[in-house]
Each structure stands twice: as C-alpha cells, then as structure tokens.
C-alpha cells in the first residue's frame, strides 16, 4: 500500500477526485479513473502488455488477442477467466494477472498463428521470441504480406472520415484493400494508414513533390505563403478545409511557414493580446488601436495598493 501515493503522483495531471477505482495488477494496487481500461492503467504504470491492434485514438477492438490477461473478481472466490485487457473496464476490486501461465499460453497460441500467416514479419518474429517461439508449428503462408488484420488502418481512415480502404473476402483469404481493388476515389493521401501500421505493411512513395499510395498519385499542395511544397496533398487540403470550415490557405503551408506563423501568433498574444483577439474577430487593428485595446488586469479590491 505504501506505493499507491507514488503511483498517484506519476499521473499528476489528474486530481485525486478523478480516481474512481482500485484494482490489483500482478499483486500491486493501482488507481484507475472512470472510463479507463485495464490496458490503459497498465500502460500508465509501465506494466508491459503486448497489443497489436490497439491505438489510443481509436475505440478498443480486441482483434489481435495479444493483450489478454487473467482476471478475477472478489465474488468469484478465486475463479478467473482470460479476457482482452483493451476492452476490459478498470473496475474496483479487479485482480489482474498479466504474466500467468494461462496468459502466456494464450499469447503463444496467437503468435504461432501469426507466424504462420506472416512468417517474414520482423515485428511478429521479435515478439514470438519473447514467448519462446522461433518458428511456427503450422504451415506457413509464404506468399502473403505482413498484414495481421489488426484493422488499425481501416479504423483510422474511417475515423478521419475518408473511408477509402476496407476489408475484403473472408476467412483465411481476408485482407485489407481498396473497394473492388481499384484506385480509391476517396483516398486523400494522408498516410494515416501507413504511418500507423504496426508491421509496416502498407507501402508508399513520397519525393516531396508527389506521393503515391494504394495505386493513386497525389501532388503535394503549394504553400500559400512561400509557394514551396507543403507536407499535405491537394486532396488533404481540400478535405480538411471542407471538414473544418476554414479556408484552404490555412492548411496549405510548409513546415517553415507554419512554425513562423505559430511563433508570431504567440508573440502577439504576449505583447498585444487584445489586438490579436480583435484581429481574429475580423477587425482592422493598427498599432495605436492595439495599445488602446490591450487587456489591463483588474485587481480585486483587497489587492489594490493604498
């Protein structure tokens, strides 16, 4: 119990009033907030639980089954069951084991299957070695890529609002692809799918002027300030402008101009906060007017000088 305060201090961006439950993980007690999963609590406290289909920005999926833990409740009188920690709410009184023999056995079975499906994936090979596997006991699918069907790519794309890729076929033939395996009309070339793929299966090309992914070529947008190439495609700029209601020029900026604009904005906020607010509301403000509308703090009466 002596370690609970130190674990609490480790999450100092949250107040003690936010803590809703106490659970036990591998014999030690941890605090959890309302809405957290067991995997969330484990990650916050540096407890290693492998997870291949988990992404902090997405809802729990539970497809890979690598994050399984052995859980028990006080009313179960010592009984336990295996479940995915990414979808298990962190509730008061839970007793969690992350490295029991049952847990290791399930993870080993999953990795044996993944090694058969993706025998050349370095990520799967390295993870399998942790559990004593160097090769699968099943027939290897030599002609397949390294996709483990975690669906992070399709879920990220859907949450963004593009919905350019999906799963096709069924059973052992299931795979990630564009609709009808054709050039995806809804793809904006953002690379969210490729950048978040845990096995680096989704390939792309980018030379700074053009980008190619899923068989579609994109031209990079021109910076609205210096006219160099920005890190976004024209399709991205149009997509984000339409979705946000902001002008396309806001998104079509190279990294240098974007950083410069941010620095200037912060400088204005520090030196002339009133002027910056008025300008953001669409008012024309010159230097004299800026001085006039700069906010002046009003002190409570008890703090005023006599």
Characterization of this structure:
Helix content is 33%, strand content 16%. It is an alpha+beta fold. Among the domains are: 4-99, Ubiquitin-like (UB roll) (Roll), CATH 3.10.20.740; 152-256, no CATH class. The strands form three sheets. It has a five-stranded mixed beta sheet, with helices on both faces. The chain has a four-stranded antiparallel beta sheet with strand order 8-9-10-11. A two-stranded antiparallel ribbon has the order 6-7. Helix 3 (101-117) runs antiparallel to helix 4, helix 9 packs across helix 10 (273-280) and helix 10 packs across helix 11. It is globular, with a radius of gyration of 26 Å. The termini are far apart.
Strand content: 15-25%
Work out the number of β strands. Answer: 11
Order of the strands making up the biggest sheet? 2-1-5-3-4
Q: How helical, in percent, are the residues?
A: 25-40%
| Count of alpha/pi helices | 11
Task: Spell out the blueprint of helices and strands.
Blueprint: H1 4-10, E1 19-25, E2 28-33, H2 38-44, E3 68-72, E4 81-84, E5 95-97, H3 101-117, H4 122-130, H5 152-160, E6 166-168, E7 175-177, H6 192-195, E8 204-206, E9 210-213, E10 216-222, E11 229-233, H7 234-244, H8 248-251, H9 255-271, H10 273-280, H11 287-293
Parallel strand pairs: 1-5
Antiparallel strand pairs: 1-2, 3-4, 3-5, 6-7, 8-9, 9-10, 10-11
What brief labels describe this structure?
5-stranded mixed beta sheet; 11 helices; globular; single chain; alpha+beta; 306 residues; 11 strands; 4-stranded antiparallel beta sheet; Ubiquitin-like (UB roll); disordered N terminus
């Amino acid at each position: 119990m002596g370690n609970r305060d130190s674990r609490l201090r480790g999450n100092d961006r949250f107040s003690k009033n936010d803590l809703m439950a106490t659970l036990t993980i591998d014999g030690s007690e941890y605090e959890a907030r309302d809405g957290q999963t067991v995997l969330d609590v484990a990650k916050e406290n540096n407890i290693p639980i492998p997870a291949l289909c988990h992404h902090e920005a997405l809802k729990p999926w539970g497809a890979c089954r690598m994050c399984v833990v052995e859980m028990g409740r006080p009313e179960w009188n010592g009984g336990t069951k295996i479940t995915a920690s990414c979808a298990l709410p962190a509730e008061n009184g839970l007793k969690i084991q992350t490295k029991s023999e049952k847990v290791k056995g399930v993870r080993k079975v999953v990795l044996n299957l993944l090694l058969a499906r993706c025998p050349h994936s370095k990520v799967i090979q390295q993870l399998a070695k942790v559990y004593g596997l160097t090769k699968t006991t099943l027939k290897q699918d030599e002609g397949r890529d390294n996709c483990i069907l975690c669906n992070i790519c399709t879920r990220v794309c859907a949450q963004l609002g593009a919905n350019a890729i999906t799963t096709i076929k069924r059973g052992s033939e299931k795979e990630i692809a564009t609709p009808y395996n054709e050039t995806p009309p809804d793809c904006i070339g953002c690379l969210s799918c490729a950048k978040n793929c845990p096995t680096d299966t989704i390939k792309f090309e980018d030379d700074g002027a053009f980008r190619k992914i899923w068989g579609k070529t994109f031209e990079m947008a021109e910076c609205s300030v210096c006219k160099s190439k920005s890190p976004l495609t024209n399709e991205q700029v149009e997509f984000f402008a339409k979705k946000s209601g902001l002008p396309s020029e806001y998104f079509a900026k190279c990294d240098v101009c974007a950083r410069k604009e941010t620095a200037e904005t912060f400088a204005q906020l520090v030196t002339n906060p009133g002027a910056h607010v008025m300008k953001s509301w669409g008012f024309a403000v010159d230097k004299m007017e800026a001085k006039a509308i700069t906010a002046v703090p009003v002190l409570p009466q008890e703090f005023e000088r006599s």
